[in-house]
Design brief:
It is built from 2 helices and no strands. The protein has about 70 residues and is mainly alpha-helical. It has a domain of about 30 residues.
Length: about 70
């Protein structure tokens, strides 16, 4: 089973993969593997963002969207 990573960890890994791919120093097979992993990360990161967006909308709609300092969201 794969370990669930945080958004920040995923972004760091995605950035590292992107730099490796852009360097042009990887073999073709390694480039394919890196690209596949990058696509998995992209999908996972998008899912995390969607989940966060839903949580924010739910909090805002339920009236709990008050920002620190008393300002409404």
């Amino acid at each position: 089973m794969k370990k669930k990573i945080t958004f920040e960890e995923g972004m760091r890994e995605l950035e590292a993969l992107t730099q490796s791919l852009e360097s042009g120093q990887m073999s073709l097979e390694d480039s394919f593997k890196a690209y596949e992993r990058a696509m998995q990360l992209k999908d996972g990161l998008n899912a995390l963002l969607d989940e966060g967006d839903k949580r924010i909308r739910l909090l805002t709609e339920s009236g709990e969207g008050t920002l620190p300092g008393g300002e409404e969201a």
